[in-house]
Predict the structure.
Amino acid sequence: MRVTSTLGLALTASTLVQGFPTLPSFTRTNKPRELTADDIIVVKDGAVTVMAKADYLAANTDLMPPANVTAPLTDSTPSGNATAARLAKRCDSYSITTMNPVQTFLNWDIPMSSVIHADTTTAQVAVTQGYSISNSISVSISATLSTVSQVLGVSLGIDYSKSWTSSYETSYTFTVPTGHYGAVVSNPKTTRYSGVVDVGCAGVGGEQSTWQSDIYTDKSYGNLAWVDGTISLCTGTEYPLPNCIGDGTIS
């Protein structure tokens, strides 16, 4: 299914029509609104606002990723070994799930355009590629995946079948300063649950598996819904372009 919203974003999704919106779509006689590295598009509760990036960051310091935050999860594929599964087959097994404090933050940069270089004059860059995110979970011991996902699904109502894919059509361009590289990035507002699950045989002992789950918030607007977060221009003087939020680079 493909739908163009009244906010100017073409959206597709595996289970629902969801994604990041833009401001109202323009007619062919209108030019896209030009933004700079000093601007930020804020998506919150189904509404979209353009504001000064410095003002937004100053008012939302609590949303900056903690120093120890790791890279965003990309899928639900677990790693680890099958020890827990072997234990479960030959004894009265147990599992005890413990949760760390919940973290809420703007996740690492997700590129929504290619990187361009403004050589001798400024250059314009627009969103030219879609991106996909989903509620996700990972564990260090494969056999504990179903245990953790069931606990989170029942206690918190998390749906791991949800995913959001978006592609941009119109509305904005960003100006890259002369002598800089730039790319449009999104930073989805993320709620991260994490903890450990102890598994083993009663009276014998077992193993401890770590787990982590990233969840995104969608807000309904008419018959559509989107994920809260921000869209902005990331700039720098090096290539590959260092992430503006999070580690790593954009190339």
In short: The chain has three helices and 21 strands.
